[in-house]
Amino acid sequence: MGIAENISAIKATLLDGVRLIAVSKFHPAEAIAEAYEAGQRDFGESRVQELSAKAPVLPDDIHWHFIGHLQTNKVRQLIPHVDTIQSVDSLRLLRLIDSEAVRVGRTVNVMIQVHVAQEETKFGFAPDELLTSLTPEVVEPMHNIIITGIMGMASNTDDDERVEADFEALRRVWQQLKEGVMASNEAFRELSMGMSHDYHLAMRHGATMVRIGTDIFGERQY
Fold first, then answer.
1. What pLDDT was estimated at residue 119?
2. At which residues is N6-(pyridoxal phosphate)lysine found (predicted)?
């Protein structure tokens, strides 16, 4: 099947209210254009240089989601192009994104990355760390960012019980933030979790966004 057929097949499996983020990293602009023609508007990239190169040559109404580890020295380059930064993994980065968005006169959606997986290589806040450090004193001075939710990934394992436990841990953090520091923020409603191999499990635990690459575009072209 081609890209358009793959998107159609995946969308047929999504629960109501779940948004598909097509992970286009390492795939050429032509493949993204093909997905765009099929109606896809949300795309995920993990390298600032790659996103910055693709955005100007593709339609303006694409919503670019940055999903990789964001180095502070790349924020300025990213801000003009991105709709949502899903991978905010420190308060320093959160503040820097806000100040850079203020500087260029843009408002940027951000999501807080939470780490629950077994792998140490993953980035993000530990659940308890996030719940204690994301306070009103941190959030209220922000001017040009909108915190729309959290993002995370499950352990890379074939053990479905472990994967579901990870997704449930993410859902609990999201719920606690919704009922706590984010209670007055109506925009805080996104739970981004689940990829090609486990998004069906993620949806069972309340995912509102799933990030799917291989099942749309095939294997990555490095």
1. 77
2. 25
What residues contact residue 48 under an 8 Å CB cut-off, 6+ apart? Answer: 66, 70, 71, 74, 77, 78
The dihedral formed by the CA atoms of 74, 80, 85 and 90, expressed in degrees to the nearest 10 = 40
DSSP the chain: --HHHHHHHHHTTSPTTPEEEEE-TTS-HHHHHHHHHTT--EEEES-HHHHHHHGGGS-TT-EEEE-SPPPGGGHHHHTTT-SEEEEE-SHHHHHHHHHHHHHHT--EEEEEEEE-SS-TT--SB-HHHHHHHS-HHHHTT--SEEEEEEEEE--SSS-HHHHHHHHHHHHHHHHHHHHTTTTT-TT--EEE---TTTHHHHHHTT-SEEEE-HHHH-S---
Cα–Cα distance for residue pair 59/101, rounded to 1 Å: 22
- Grouped pLDDT means (10 residues each) for the chain, 222 residues: 95 97 96 97 98 97 97 97 98 98 97 90 90 96 97 95 97 98 97 96 98 91 55
Residue 176 Cα to chain centre, angstroms = 19
> What superfamily would CATH give domain 3-11+18-217?
Alanine racemase (3.20.20.10)
Domain definitions of the chain by residue range: 3-11+18-217
Cβ atoms within 10 Å of 154's Cβ, excluding its own: 28
Q: Give me the DSSP letters along 9-68.
A: HHHTTSPTTPEEEEE-TTS-HHHHHHHHHTT--EEEES-HHHHHHHGGGS-TT-EEEE-S
